[in-house]
Design a protein that fits this description.
Number of strands: 20
Protein name: NAD-dependent succinate-semialdehyde dehydrogenase
Largest sheet: 7 strands, mixed
Number of helices: 14
Family: Belongs to the aldehyde dehydrogenase family.
Pfam family, one: Aldedh
Helix content: 25-40%
InterPro entries: Ald_DH/histidinol_DH, Ald_DH_C, Ald_DH_CS_GLU, Ald_DH_N, Aldehyde_DH_dom, Aldehyde_DH_Superfamily
Structural class: alpha/beta
Strand content: 15-25%
Keywords: Oxidoreductase
Bound molecules: NADP nicotinamide-adenine-dinucleotide phosphate
Length: about 475
């Protein structure tokens, strides 16, 4: 579209808090800046919610809950369907907005808008399939009725790395189930969520069902809402460290929780794998979102007989990737989200090199402006290297050779995380054997991308609790009620 401009898409966003269906400034009048990570420049200022604004947002969600729960499932689904259509229609503007605040290349932002919209289409369909049951009691004299009801007002917290999709993955099922919400996007990427709120209002979402808080004080604003007792659910996507803290807060009033936390995905390549497919999958699993994805391949384990060829071919592909501002044509490697992210990646690479890893390509920061780090391949990475146990969240592929299947599985499972694992092999028996033994909520079997709105996304171990998407995604926002019937 010729008519869209950077200044235009930023100007079009309402930058206030969205409470009770109205755009309002923060009660104390404060704002905070949103930066472009590719230049470090300020894009705009948005309202900086205080704890008092948080309470107003929760008041609005609580006030809207009873009426919203009584809106027909078909109507709730149709609101989501209209919002899906608006997202698709405005994908170009929304993609540009996302690239400006988050940095990922435009093509990836466009892909995320499509992915995000699909959650609304999926849950529009799920809204009318909330089931129940009728059964004869074992003693034959009574009957059991089982029904599902909305959990109630829900608190949603989303990260900066997928600013739109992490929102729709929670809002979609909450709307479908009949829950009202207070959502808090990450301070670094609030604009996509504000644009989404406007779209949902345009699609007919009643006042108070969705309330949006942007704030530079996430803990100060959200903790009182978690401890308030009126919200019945917290759905969080973010780091395991923050997730742990929020689980403790939720214990106070025994909130239902969904936790989509950090990952440390192993990527296993066996000698019998289709190497072309493995390289393609490795590029996707590593470089989607500039490596800033919970599903990013964090550790490559490659069988010794093919490790040199795999490393050479991956290096060729990585060093050919154009780096630059995400708005530029053809760019694949955009900036990382901020300076601390660049420092973290740099530190992890330096630590691996100190312990004996070799740099095949990259391995350096890039002079500013912007938070750039080169696409990097490391080989001979020892298992003691910090990046074997920590999320890299950047464009770095560490490769370690292995000899046996047992050794590969033991290395892959040697982590507190369990979100996703990738396996490349052409042997069907090995594929199933290894998939069953890997400790992860999701397996990419001969594919480097698992995310799909129609599939249950989520992790085990310290990668989280619950699932988003698929037929089970809506259950996270429903309570089961059993009615014992005397005949
Ligand atoms: P983060 O620091 O944990 O932040 C996530 C969200 O929590 C942000 O909105 C953040 O707001 C908020 N937050 C931080 N401290 C808080 C507190 N004390 N109370 C309430 N809210 C708080 O994570 P991130 O750096 O944004 O995101 C990257 C992490 O998310 C990675 O670990 C990644 O693996 C994980 N992730 C997981 C999935 C999944 O589905 N499993 C998907 C995407 C990302 P502010 O930033 O404004 O403080």
């Amino acid at each position: 579209m010729d008519s869209i401009s950077e200044a235009g898409v930023v100007a079009a966003v309402d930058k206030e808090l969205f409470i009770g269906g109205k755009w309002v400034p923060a009660a104390n009048g404060k704002t905070f800046p949103v930066l472009d990570p590719s230049t470090g420049e300020v894009l705009c200022e948005v309202a900086d919610a205080s704890p008092a604004d948080g309470v107003s947002a929760l008041d609005a969600a609580v006030a809207a809950q009873a009426d919203w729960a009584n809106v027909a499932p078909r109507e709730r689904g149709e609101i989501l369907r209209r919002a899906y259509e608006l997202l698709v229609e405005r994908a170009d503007e929304l993609a540009l907005l996302m690239t400006l605040e988050m940095g990922k290349p435009l093509a990836e932002s466009k892909g995320e808008i499509t992915y995000a919209a699909e959650f609304f289409r999926w849950f529009a369909e799920e809204a009318v399939r909330i089931g129940g049951g009728y059964a004869v009691a074992p003693n034959g004299t009574g009957r059991f009725l089982v029904t599902k009801q909305p959990v109630g007002p829900s608190l949603l917290i989303t990260p900066w790395n997928f600013p739109m999709a992490m929102g729709t993955r929670k809002i979609g099922p909450a709307v479908a189930a009949g829950c009202t919400m207070v959502i808090k996007p990450a301070a670094q990427t609030p604009l996509s969520m504000l644009a989404l709120a406007a779209i949902l209002a345009e699609a007919g979402l009643p006042e108070g069902v969705l309330n949006v808080l942007t704030t530079s004080d996430s803990g100060g604003v959200m903790e009182p809402l978690i401890r308030d007792g009126r919200a019945r659910k917290l759905s969080f996507t973010g780091s395991t460290g923050v997730g742990r803290k929020l689980l403790e807060q939720c214990a106070d009033k025994v909130l239902r929780t969904s936790m989509e936390l950090g990952g440390n995905a192993p990527f296993l390549v066996f000698e019998d794998a289709d190497l072309d497919a493995a390289i393609e999958g490795a590029m996707t699993a590593k470089m989607r979102n500039i490596g800033e994805a919970c599903t990013a391949a964090n550790r490559f384990y490659v069988q010794r007989g093919i490790v040199d060829e795999f490393s050479r071919r991956l290096t060729e592909r990585m060093e050919a990737l154009p780096m630059g501002r995400g708005t530029e044509e053809g760019v694949v490697v955009g900036p990382l989200i901020d300076e601390p992210a660049v420092e973290k990646v740099s530190g992890l690479v330096a630590d691996a090199v100190d312990r004996g890893a070799r740099v095949l390509t990259g391995g350096s920061t890039v002079d500013g402006p912007g938070n750039f780090y080169q696409a990097t391949v490391l080989t001979d990475v020892p298992k003691e290297a910090r990046l074997a146990s920590e999320e890299i969240f950047g464009p770095v592929a560490p490769i370690t050779p292995f000899d046996s299947e047992d050794e590969a599985i033991a290395a892959a499972n040697d982590t507190e995380f369990g979100l996703v694992s990738y396996v490349y092999t052409s042997d069907l028996k090995r594929a199933l054997r290894v998939s069953e033994r890997l400790e992860a909520g999701m397996i990419g079997l001969n594919q480097g991308l698992v995310s799909n709105p129609a599939a249950p996304f989520g992790g085990i171990k310290q990668s989280g609790l619950g699932r988003e998407g698929g037929t089970v995604g809506i259950d996270e926002f429903l309570e089961t009620k059993y009615i014992a019937v005397a005949l």
